[in-house]
Every structure is written in C-alpha cells, then in structure tokens.
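Tutorial, part two.
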Amino acid sequence: MNIGYDAKRLFNNKTGLGSYSRNLINCMNEFCPSEFYHLYTPSITLTEYEDEFKLHDRISTHKAPSSNKAMWRTYGMSKDLHRDKIEVYHGLTHELPRSINKVKCAKVVTIHDLIFKTHPEYFPATDRAIYNLKWKHSINTSDKIVAISEHTKSDIIKYYNVDPEKIEVIYNTCDPRFYHAFKINTKQNQLELPENYMLTVGSIEPRKNFEAIVKALAQIPIDQRISLVIVGGGKDKYKKALIELVHSLGLEKIVHLRSDITNDQIVEVYKRAEFLVYPSHYEGHGLPITESLLCGTPVISSGTSSMKEAGGPDCIYINPNNINSISNAITTLLDDSHLRESISTKGHQYAMRKFDRQSIAKQTLNLYKSI
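Running the prediction step on this input gives:
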C-alpha cells in the first residue's frame, strides 16, 4: 500500500506536532514493513530528520517545487499524490489539501485538540476563524478522523456534530528511547542539574500554567523546598513575566529555566527528577506526562481535558486553578517516598501498556485498510 503523509511539521517543528509526526512514521515503518510511506512537505528546516528518513528504503520524501511552495500544500500536492499512486493520504496535523478530492484515495486526518474552541482566550479572533475553516474542511472531507484522546473525540463531536463512528481514538506514541528509559542508569549528572528537583516540560506559554508551580513552590516552607527545573522555550513576553514572578518571590536560586536541553538529553532530565508537575489548563494528550511515566518518574497533573488518559489512575491530579491544590500535592510527594515509588512502578506499567508502539502502529494500519 502507498500511504501519503503531510510532513510539514515533521520536517519543520521540534515540539508536539512534529514529534507526533516523526514518532508515528517511525512506528509505521518499524512495525508495518510491507507498506510504502511517502512524506510530503513544502520545505525542510530540520535537515537531521531528512537524513534520518533517507536511511529507510520504504520511505520517500517529496518537496514542493521551488516556484510553488506557498500554494503547493493546499492546492498543488494533489498532482504529486496522483503521480505516486497514493492509496491513503493522512493529514497528520489537522489539515487536508483543498484539492484532495481530485485524488482517488482514502482520506484520514488527525485532530489533536480544539483549544481554539475550548479556550478562545489564547488565540486572536483572526487565528480562530482560520483554524475553524481548516478544521471544518478536514473534518467534513475526511473518510476517517483520528483523535489522539477520548477527550478530543468528545470535543470534535461537540463542536462539529460529527458521527462518532467516523472518529477513531489512536493515542500518541513516544520517541523509542522512552520505552527503554526505565532501566537506564543516570547516576552521572552530566547536565549540571540540581541534586534534587521537580520538573516541568513544555512551551512557556499561558496555557501551560507554569506560573502556578512557581506560586505553589513559594507556599512551601523554605526548609522543605526543592528546586524546580523548567525545560522549554517560549514566547518572550510570557517567559519574561515568568522570570519576573520568580524574582518577586525570591526563588531565583532554586528555579532553573533550561532551553538548552536536547532530545538526546531529555530522558536523563526526566529520570533524575523527583517528579513531574504539569498543571496545564488543557491538552489534546499531554505528552510530557506519558514520557515521564515511561521514565519511571511520578507525575502531578491537572485532572482536566485528556490528562487523566495520559497519566492513568495512579498519578496525583490537581485543580490547575488552585495554588493550594498544587502545593499540597507537591508536599505530599516530597514527604512520601513510598507513594513516589508506587506511582513510579504503576505509572510505568500503565504507560507501557496504554501507549505501546506496536499496538498503535497496527491500529493505524487497520484504520487505513478499513476505509
């Protein structure tokens, strides 16, 4: 089977949507080796991934012609899909080409979240209008929709009145290195991390609610505090406000912002942490939660949107709008080593079972074949 993928984020995005795309293609190539995979992208900025996928003879990368990059992904790609005899086309990040109906192939789209609907305060009105048009077209045009969580499926049904039978929940998978992380020894501190710290990971933006962790840390008695490591880049305005908050609360010696951590180093950061704190207001999945559990690191998380699906029954869930809820959860885990050990063991088992790479690849291929 010739399967085509929208690979724009795969080759141009280092964070969530790019990771989803790369992880899925690697899964499909490893566990479904009888198919041919075609990656379509208007450009490539992350050349390391281009080199990686070139190593696989069943994966082909197709770039837009230099004279038509702007409109190619929306209107011109259909000619390439026809040329390559694509049987299934999968839009990995919410979108399908406007001209996709010109191609005789099955059409699948992954919807990660509807944050612009559930939390419009995070988006300008123009962006919300554009997203709505794109999502609506993809949802209506597709033969099948992949939702990355049951919560996202519920949102799609709620906001777009979609037949539930059209939507298949297929969870994210993680980078392969996380599935071997539980047994990795990280005694050597090669990244100059604090001796004891709690961790949060993600883009520094209002939705992630990192300022709530800082405020919760300030409520904990000085002799009971540990460091906080924040891994992620972010918008300058919000990052500046977060740094100002840290200084105003006198926490600058124990709060560390690290934007220098690479994909190769992140497993060590997770494993050395006492636990992850993730008070996000909304997630389509909440990948750092799953990554943390795969590493055997306990998790404190919001109990909203999809995050209970990402974390399972043994994490500690908090109200992201209640600072006392967060500080109490932190104190509880700091004081109870047996609870940390229990969450580590049970959470790891849950994540390995729920987000098994082979199962996700087979589920995806079965979806393609069912259309």
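The chain has two domains: 2-173+356-370, 176-354. In part three we will examine how such features are distributed along the chain.
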